[in-house]
Amino acid sequence: MDADVIIIGSGMGGATLAAALAPTGRRILILERGEHLQPSAIDRDPDAIFRDGVFRPDEEWLDGADRPFNPGNYYNVGGNSKFYGAALIRYREADFGSVAHPGGTTPGWPIDYGELEADYQAAEDLYHVRGSATGDPTEPYHSGSYPYPPVPDEPDVEILRSRLSRVGLRPSPIPLGVDLTVWLSGGQTTWDAFPNTGRGKMDAETGGLAMALSHRNVTLRTRCTVEALEVDDTGRVIGARLGQGETLTSSIVVVAAGAVQTAALLLRSANENYPSGLANRSDQVGRNFMNHNCSAVLALHPFRKNRSVYQKTLMLNDFYLPTGDRPALGNVQMLGKVTGPILAANSGLPRWLADFVAARSFDFYAMSEDLPNSESRVTLRNGKIKLDWQRSNWAAHEQLVRTLKSKLRQAGFPVVVSKPFDRRTPSHQCGTARMGHAPTTSVVNSYCRSHDHSNLFIVDASVLPTSAAVNPALTIAALALRAGRHIAETELVA
What are the Cα distances from residue 269, in Å, to 62, 220, 431? Predict the structure, then answer.
């Protein structure tokens, strides 16, 4: 065999799992289709990143109407986390249960928050999260403290925090995986949507993968595209077939390629014994695709400037949980500071006007839950990925945006505008290989083990039964730690 464990993908799930398994001493091989991001002159160039899209892969998928589009997913060591906003937020305790929304009721999880809490704590330690467990009305129980205090507000964000508090809101710090001093030493920009080619952000590469590769038994191979998984007559996965025709074998195979690519790989691995794809006895592989409902909301006063550089330190969960007269609406957090080039690239405004607006705007990210729907799915069409996203719960998101706008006007911003994110923006894709107790309605069990293949695990956002309404990166890492502990105790024992 080429390894004891093969992990396909080096994003948040794959990298964290590798870190969990590395101390076992077993041979772990991580396969990544991309390469390491290398420092370059355009790392902090907003025109190159947002206008020219130099880091976006040259890739084409089909939408539900078979129209081609560029999805904006990244393929490199560390996956999409290399560009993420580093918000490492726990799902709220209620998210693990059944929650009624205007667009429907969520199905709940096969585990509750308490079963994952210790793994959340361990993930926060691994990713050096800066945060505070006080001040947020929805913050769940923590068994320990954050390893570092919150990233500090800039002076204008401090003033914003006071304004929001005066209109009855309860702003709290965003838990962040950012070393502010190191990040700003590379350039005076935010980190949100900028590539991390140093060590300023704690992403999958600088966090979990760095820890894993400090062990001699862990190896990373880049530029390895896995075309299909090989299965023997007993249903055991015996290896991963690469695009170059090479097949690598191992005792355990873990797929962690992301919600869309994981589903595509399992479907592409269909054979005579498994004509609908691997791990798909339930016919749930590729189904229940979710992508958060998101909008950018800009609040400004024409005679006041926002001098912030990074801005992304404040969030609001006042509208997250249902109340007697209002349903659950979602999370609000600051975007990384929008500048003129970023605004011009995303709005079509002339540059002079974009510069004027951005210099005065406070920029928010409103995020609502997208509900699982079996017809919202990933399929293959002549070998090409088809993503038919059936957006749900949009009325709740519209209500969140209206409510936020009203509060911002009360807080002293006469001009508040919003723009929803479209399907070219991957806003936390998840759900295509969901976790559950029943093999007839789910793909993996609560330890991320396939119901159909005992040595196949899926450890990425595809296993999330619901999307909740906060960033999923920390939950993916916590699930990977839980799965890693299970694999070490049941599969890699001496």
Answer: 20, 23, 19
> In which band, very low, low, confident or very high, does the pLDDT at 424 lie, cut at 50, 70 and 90?
low
Q: Which residue, chain included where needed, has tokens 């999880």?
A: 109
Between CA 299 and CA 169 the distance in angstroms is 16
**Homologous superfamily assigned to 3-38+52-490:** FAD/NAD(P)-binding domain (3.50.50.60)
Helix axes 113-126, 12-21, angle to 10 degrees: 90
Pairing of strands 237-242, 314-316: unpaired
Task: Give me the residue spans of the domains in the chain.
Answer: 3-38+52-490
pLDDT in tens, 233-246: 899 999 999 987 89
Q: What is the pLDDT of residues 212-222, one digit of tens each?
A: 999 999 999 99
Q: Is the pLDDT of residue 59 over 70?
A: yes
